[in-house]
Amino acid sequence: MPSRTFADRTRGLVRDEALERAAELLVAGGWRGLRLQDVADGIGVSRQTLYNEFASKQGLAAALVLRRTEEFLAGLEAALDGEDDLYRAWVEAVRTTLDTVARDPLLRVLLTGQGAQDLLPLLTSEAEPLITAARDRAAAFLVRRRPDLDPATASAAAEIAARLTISHVVLPLHPPDVVADQIATTVVRFLM
């Protein structure tokens, strides 16, 4: 496999720095206070460089949500792998997700901060990348845990869990422990 070029490494560094700076600005000033020019100034590149990388402010936000998703999916995977019992594994995974959202200032701003209604589509009508990432990681866990399980069934169960968890994050109606129990019960019953 060929190594990455200098240009690719540089682009990746600019992207990482832009996402870090955008997260800081988003937490400090909310969605309406986030400007691509401020992100560009903060990392020493032109605004056009950011437009070339993300296409728009919404594209930057989508990349930020996906990045945060990948970070927390690693924790989700650890929670799933940390339990032998399938039900308890799912309870722990859902609790981990809900706890992460509750503790993470960036996710709180994305979901509840001023101007968050502009970002809500990233978790609702435009949530496909988020759901797909969560589904694929959780389905891989299920297939590892139960090799006899049909991959399509594992994928369906994982997608159900992802959609239900995101739904609770967006509109919590019950305490996290109740939600974790409900989702784990749904997944386990679906798999039976």
Sheet-strand content, in percent, reads under 5%
- In CATH, the topology is named Tetracycline Repressor, domain 2
- The assigned CATH architecture is Orthogonal Bundle
The main pleated sheet reads as: none
Uncertain spans: none
Shape: elongated
Number of strands: 0
Proportion of residues in helical segments:
over 70%
- Mean pLDDT score, rounded? 84
CATH top-level class:
Mainly Alpha
Rg over alpha carbons: 18 Å
Count of alpha/pi helices: 9
The tally of structural domains comes to 1
Supply the CATH superfamily name. Answer: Tetracycline Repressor, domain 2
Order of helices and strands: HHHHHHHHH
Query: What is the CA–CA distance across the termini?
Result: 42 Å
Structural class from helices and strands? mainly alpha
Protein described:
The chain has a single domain, classed as Tetracycline Repressor, domain 2 (Orthogonal Bundle), CATH 1.10.357. The radius of gyration is 18 Å and the shape is elongated. The protein is built from 9 helices and no strands. The protein is mainly α. The model has no long low-confidence stretch (mean pLDDT 84). α7 packs across α8 and α8 (151-170) runs antiparallel to α9 (176-191). It comes from Actinomycetospora succinea. Residues 12-72 form the HTH tetR-type domain. InterPro entries: AlkX_C, Homeodomain-like_sf, HTH-type_TetR-like_transc_reg, HTH_TetR. Keywords: DNA-binding, Transcription, Transcription regulation. GO terms for molecular function: DNA-binding transcription factor activity; transcription cis-regulatory region binding.
